[in-house]
Write a structure and sequence with these properties.
Helix 3 links the parallel strand 3 and strand 4. The chain has 8 helices and 12 strands. By secondary structure, it is of the alpha/beta class. The protein has a 5-stranded parallel β-sheet with strand order 2-1-3-4-5, with helices on both faces. It has a 4-stranded antiparallel β-sheet with strand order 6-7-8-9, with helices on one face. It has 2 domains: 115 residues, Rossmann fold, CATH 3.40.50; 91 residues, Winged helix-like DNA-binding domain superfamily/Winged helix DNA-binding domain (Arc Repressor Mutant, subunit A, Orthogonal Bundle), CATH 1.10.10.10.
Length: 220
C-alpha cells in the first residue's frame, strides 16, 4: 500500500480525489496549504505527492522545489487550472514527474498515480555501461563512482536506456514504459527529463537523440 499526500485547497476537488485514491487501496492524507504539506512530508513516509499549483500560501512550484531538496526520489504529480506551456515547464523544472490540467477525470488521475508508482526497467541485477552503473533493486545510479541524485522518472528513464544500451529506443515505447500505457499527446515531458539526465550525467555525453525515432544510450 502506497502513502499519498494530496495538497489541494479546494474541498470540492480534494474530497472526491482523496476518496477515489483511497478506493485504489492507498493510504491518503490531505493538506490544504503548502506549509501544512511540507510539515507532513517531513516524516519521509509519503510515496507520491499530488500537488496543486495554486495554493493560498506557498506556491505549488516552491513546495515542489523544497520537497525535492529533502526527498530527491519523491514522486510528484502537479495539478493546475492553468494550461499554458510556461506553467507546465515551471512545474517540471521544479521537479514534478508529471503534470495534469484541471478539469481532469478521476480515472485519468488514478492511472497517472499508478504509473508513478510503477518501477521502470528490469528489477534484476546491476548494469554498468560507459561508466554508468544502475542498480534497479536499490533504485540507485552512479557515474564514474559518483552517485546521481535522480527523481523517480529520471531513474526509470535511465534504467530503461541503460538496459537497452546501443539501441535506438522509440519515443512512444519510452513514454508507455516510463510514464503510462495510456499516455496521449505531447512527448515534451520526455525531452525535459532527457535534458535533466544529460546535465546530471555530465561529460562525456552518453545520451544521443536519434532523429525521428527516440534516444540511444551509447555503449562505448
Amino acid at each position: 500500500m502506497a502513502r499519498l499526500l494530496v495538497v489541494e485547497d479546494d474541498a470540492a476537488i480534494s474530497e472526491p480525489l482523496v476518496r477515489a485514491l483511497a478506493r485504489e487501496g492507498h493510504e491518503v492524507d490531505h493538506a490544504a496549504t503548502g506549509a501544512d504539506a511540507l510539515e507532513r512530508l517531513a516524516d519521509g513516509r509519503v510515496d507520491v505527492l499530488v500537488l496543486d499549483l495554486g495554493l493560498p500560501d506557498i506556491d505549488g512550484v516552491e513546495v515542489c522545489r523544497r520537497a525535492r531538496e529533502d526527498r530527491p526520489r519523491l514522486r510528484v504529480l502537479m495539478l493546475t487550472a492553468r494550461s499554458s506551456e510556461l506553467d507546465e515547464v515551471l512545474g517540471l523544472d521544479a521537479g514534478a514527474d508529471d503534470y495534469l490540467t484541471k478539469p481532469f477525470s478521476l480515472s485519468v488521475l488514478s492511472a497517472r498515480v499508478r504509473a508513478l508508482l510503477r518501477r521502470g526497467g528490469d528489477d534484476g541485477g546491476e548494469r554498468q555501461v560507459a561508466g554508468v552503473r544502475v542498480d534497479p533493486a536499490a533504485r540507485r545510479a552512479w557515474r564514474d563512482g559518483r552517485e546521481l541524485e535522480l527523481s523517480p522518472k529520471e531513474f526509470d528513464l535511465l534504467a530503461l536506456l541503460v538496459g537497452r544500451a546501443g539501441e535506438a529506443v522509440p519515443r512512444d515505447e519510452i513514454m508507455t514504459t516510463v510514464w503510462d500505457e495510456n499516455w496521449w499527446g505531447s512527448t515534451k515531458t520526455l525531452d525535459t527529463h532527457v535534458g535533466w539526465l544529460r546535465r546530471k550525467l555530465g561529460d562525456p555525453p552518453v545520451l544521443t537523440t536519434v532523429r525521428g525515432v527516440g534516444f540511444r544510450f551509447e555503449d562505448g
